[in-house]
């Protein structure tokens, strides 16, 4: 898209004296920002195409919340998919407690150590906020960097990265 620019010299009485710069055509620089080479909607659609079961159509919430906190939306989605089994059918922790990332804390879910959320949207936002507060804020931006702090399983990052690659392939 292009737009025209007119620059005029103005007297004290706000009367135009002359067009001091000839009319030019310049590119319109107001465009939608790209996220990973995609528009936000393309990113949302790509993530939505990977979400199944209870997480279906939660791509917009995941992308918006991830971008708000500076968390990689692919990483957040992959962690949720890995931790919940939502690639096929979500775990009981998701179904009973709206906990999508295996977060521990209060209020307790069924008296256990896992946290309960009032809604699935709150659980998604809580999971992404947890990734921000405990990892991203400290410069741990990838599954490899997060692995030793997030999980005892030394292959956790490889599993999460497998999900990231599957999401990006959609």
Can you put this structure into words, describing what you see?
With 170 residues, the protein is an alpha+beta fold. It contains 7 helices and 2 strands. A hairpin with a 5-residue loop joins strand 1 (2-10) and strand 2 (16-27). Helix 2 runs parallel beside helix 5 and helix 3 packs across helix 7. It is globular, with a radius of gyration of 23 Å. It starts with a strand and ends with a helix.
Which descriptors apply to this entry?
12% strand, 170 residues, two-stranded antiparallel sheet, disordered N terminus
Question: Would you kindly provide a brief summary of this structure?
Answer:
The chain has 170 residues and is α+β, with helices and mostly antiparallel strands. Helix content is 44%, strand content 12%.
From the spread of the alpha carbons, the general shape counts as globular
Distance between the termini: 30 Å
Q: Which class best fits the helix and strand makeup?
A: alpha+beta
Mean pLDDT reading: 85
> What share of residues is helical?
40-55%
Strand residues, percent: 5-15%
Strand order of the largest sheet: 1-2
Count of individual beta strands: 2
Backbone CA Rg: 23 Å
- Describe the main β-sheet briefly: 2 strands, antiparallel
The H/E string reads: EEHHHHHHH
Low-pLDDT regions: 1-22, 26-30
